[in-house]
Write a structure and sequence with these properties.
Blueprint: H1 19-24, E1 62-63, E2 66-67, E3 73-74, E4 80-88, E5 93-103, H2 109-123, E6 128-140, H3 146-154, E7 159-163, H4 167-175, E8 183-184, H5 198-213
Parallel strand pairs: 5-6, 6-7, 7-8
Antiparallel strand pairs: 1-2, 3-4, 4-5
Helix pairs in contact: 2-3
C-alpha cells in the first residue's frame, strides 16, 4: 500500500527558501503517481530504472542527512533524484519529475542526470523531454555547459522543456545560460499538470514550443 499523498507539502515555487523546513519534510514528499496505472519505469525494459524494486517502509537515500521518500530514483548524485513518470516511444517523449538540490557546482549533476537517465532515453529514440521541478529547492550552476549543449544537440529537431521550477531557480538558469538549451518560463508554467493526461500535457507543450521556437 502506498504511503499517503502529501501534495500539500510540496515545495512552493516562490522566492523564499525555508531550507530547514524543506529538509525536515523530505521523506514525506513523494513522486507523483497519477499515471502509475498506465506507465511504470521499473516495468519498462527500455527505462534506465527497469527492474528496480522499492520499499514503502525502509528509507535508504538522504539529502544532507535527511532521509527522502523511498520511491525516488537515485542517479549517483548526492542531492538530486528523479522519477520517470511517463514515456511514449511512438511519440518520442518522456516526462521526468526531479527532486532535491540541482548542484552543477560541486557534483556536476547535469553530467550525472545526462549519463544515468537522458542518454538511455535518447538511445531509445526519445527527443522531447518534459522536466517537472516544483520539488527542486535549489540550483547551483557552473559556466561549464558541455552536457547541456550535448543534450540540446542530440535531441536534434526535438526539445527540452522545464515546468514548475521556482522563479529563483529559473533566474539562476539564466545567469548560467541554461536558457540556451532548456525552454522554461512564461506559458510553460502549468500548475494543473497533474490533472492532465500525459499525451494532453505533451501536446500542449509541443504547441507552445512550436510557436515559441518559430
Amino acid at each position: 500500500m502506498r504511503m499517503g499523498c502529501m501534495h500539500d507539502l510540496r515545495i512552493k515555487s516562490c522566492g523564499c527558501k525555508p531550507f530547514t523546513l524543506i529538509l525536515k519534510l523530505m521523506q514525506e514528499i513523494e513522486p507523483s503517481y497519477q499515471w502509475e496505472s498506465i506507465y511504470n519505469a521499473a516495468h519498462d525494459k527500455k527505462s534506465p530504472f527497469y527492474g528496480r524494486s522499492y520499499s514503502q517502509t525502509e528509507y535508504e537515500h538522504d539529502i544532507y542527512g535527511y532521509y527522502i521518500h523511498p520511491l525516488w530514483d537515485e542517479i549517483d548524485s548526492e542531492t538530486l533524484y528523479c522519477k520517470i513518470l511517463f514515456t511514449d516511444y511512438q511519440k518520442q517523449y518522456s516526462i521526468i519529475e526531479l527532486f532535491g538540490e540541482w548542484n552543477d557546482t560541486l557534483h556536476n549533476d547535469i553530467m550525472l542526470f545526462k549519463r544515468q537517465v537522458i542518454d538511455h532515453l535518447l538511445a531509445a529514440g526519445i527527443k522531447h523531454f518534459i522536466l517537472l521541478g516544483e520539488n527542486v529547492f535549489n540550483f547551483h550552476g557552473s559556466f561549464e555547459d558541455d552536457y547541456y549543449a550535448e543534450w540540446f544537440e542530440e535531441v536534434e529537431d526535438g526539445w527540452i522543456a522545464a515546468l514548475q521550477f521556482a522563479p529563483f531557480v529559473e533566474e539562476e538558469w539564466k545567469k548560467y545560460h541554461v536558457d540556451y538549451y532548456i525552454n522554461f518560463g512564461g506559458n510553460l508554467h502549468v500548475p494543473h499538470w497533474r490533472t492532465l493526461k500525459p499525451e494532453v500535457l505533451f501536446t500542449g507543450i509541443q504547441h507552445i514550443l512550436a510557436r515559441r521556437l518559430n
